[in-house]
Amino acid sequence: MSPRPGSYDPALSRAAEHARRWLDALDARPVPAQAAADGLLAQVGGALPEVGLPPDEVVDRLADLADPGLMAIGSGRFFGWVMGGVLPAALAADWLVSAWDQNAGMRPATPAAAALEEAAAGWLLDALGLPATAGVGFTTGATMANFTCLAAGRGRVLQAAGWDVHRDGLAGVPRVHVLVGAERHDTVDLTLRYLGLGAPTPVAADEQGRIRVDALAAALAEVPAGAPTLVCLQAGNVHSGAFDPFADAVEVAHRHGAWVHVDGAFGLWAAACPEFADRIRGLAAADSWATDAHKTLNVPYDCGIAVVADDLALRAALGVHASYLVREDAGPGNPYERVPELSRRARGIPVWAALRSLGRSGLVELVSGLAAAARSIAAGLGEVDGVEVLHEVAFTQVCFAVRGAGNTAGTDRTVEIGRALAADGGILLSGSRWHERDVLRISVSNWSTGPDEVAAAVAAVRRAVGSVGGSPGVEAAGRSGPDGDRLVGQPVVERRAL
Ligand SMILES: *Cc1c(COP(=O)(O)O)cnc(C)c1O
Questions:
Q1: Sorting pLDDT into bands at 50, 70 and 90, what band is 498?
Q2: Fewer Cβ within 10 Å of end Cβ, the chain: N or C?
């Protein structure tokens, strides 16, 4: 039985109304969630009700119940972790993806999804200067993109050592040596666990967090000649935004026959901007690259992208067939051959919509705008008494600490200032530890962060510094800043460590 025309109208109209209300309020609401999960669970849970509700009532109830527990990731004043906002075209496309409900695994069965994803992949390879014939898979995020790329790499380096891991598995396999920068993202280690490769060998990084090429060369020299080897580099260190020295690192690794993978969850997008040409030099010579669309590209959750120069290596590793069945003449293949899943949503379609709405020039503006905002924030923070920006601002990340002890005996001032910022709620940033010290970290990843939000970030930090062991004069200056009025008087959220 087909649904009657109009069956979806009440629920969809309510959803569109609630979505609009949420998006329009982002500019004014506190950035952190105002309620904790336990309290919310008491309201949304309990025993499964015996009798159902009409769809539009479900949507109304859902929106009301969720609201206090929503974090305003889409706000231009959100600087936490590395999380992107949502471009309008990408959000609307994502709604259509749900409405169309295509299972995007099979090219002949769902041709619109396949064509749009292939087009998005082509645009992406072009914009990022990666090989036009590379295989591209749309994954849930960079973690699974790292997994996907390293699965392809594991297959190829073992094949070169005479071992078909896809047929014979890992029992008795020659050791795969995996070398990673000391400051790689933790998810790289996680994906190596998925792949049965164990813990990697860390290679020393410099003060900006970049892998040291001399240390990489020394580590490779320890690997027996011809042994299967993977080297993981990084485009965009989460603390400093720094880029590994690709040209030299890739060359050294390739000289040893290693497969070179680049985790560029947010930093790969620097390759779209001529201004970062010196930072990404040599990047395109790697063998695989992982990135996220839900960070820098501002596509809704979830979407990561795996790119593998050797498309057949990718399809051999992740296709639902034995590796020996994938041949050169196999044609374009199916989307399911390039991601871990068989069935999945067409998450490449919002990427198509984002890129189509931006165009090449808009993409350059988006990425360079995020980096410019990060530089402005760093410059502003540098003028706040006691604040120390801890690195060169290479891209979209700003990591800083605040000199001096906190008000509470034994508490680092930086940690207390982080708590004060969380309580203020005007901006949201992350606390972390870097180079054995407590730090605060700002990530500029949202298309809607502009000059007002940059000023709000600096003013919020100034105010927090003033409130924790600072002079009253500093606090007063912060409150009279350009965005002071909007931030003062917002509800105070519960204090919590970030
Ligand atoms: C965010 C991030 C990841 C993990 O990405 P997910 O999309 O959360 O899976 C991996 N590497 C780096 C450098 C990141 O910033």
A1: very low
A2: N
Mutational pocket test of ligand 1: of 187, 240, 432, the residue with most ligand atoms within 8 Å of the beta carbon? 187
Residue 251 sits at φ, ψ, to 5 deg, of -65, -45
- Nearest to residue 191, comparing CAs of 226, 121, 144? 144
> Whole-angstrom Cα distance, residue 493 to residue 428?
12
Of the two residues 357 and 491, the one the predictor is more confident about is 357
Cα separation values, 488 from 318, 385, 475, 476, Å: 52, 21, 12, 12
If phi > 0 it is left, if psi is from -120 to 50 it is alpha, else beta; for residue 280 that is: alpha
Contact in structure between 490 and 426 (CB atoms under 8 Å): yes
pLDDT of 210-237, one tens digit each? 999 999 999 999 999 999 999 999 999 9
Within a domain: residue 44?
no
Q: Which residues, at least 6 apart from 20, have a Cβ–Cβ distance to it below 8 Å? A: none
User: Nearest CA to 197 among 165, 224, 159?
Assistant: 165
Say whether both 139 and 234 belong to one domain. yes
219 Cα–ligand 1 center, Å: 25
267: domain range? Answer: 93-357
User: Within this chain, do residues 349 and 418 fall inside the same structural domain, yes or no?
Assistant: no
336 and 210 inside one domain: yes
Has residue 403 been placed in a domain?
yes
Tell me what pLDDT residue 412 has.
Answer: 83
335 with 410, same domain? Answer: no
Note the pLDDT tens digit of each residue in 449-495.
999 999 999 999 999 999 887 433 333 333 333 322 322 223 333 32
Q: What are the tokens at 366?
A: 């988006």
Pocket test for ligand 1, best of 292, 301, 396 (most atoms within 8 A of CB): 292
We report the CATH number of the domain holding residue 406 as 3.90.1150.10
What is the distance between the alpha carbons of residues 26 and 246, in angstroms, rounded to a whole number?
39
Estimate to the nearest angstrom the gap between the alpha carbon of 290 and the chain centroid. Answer: 10
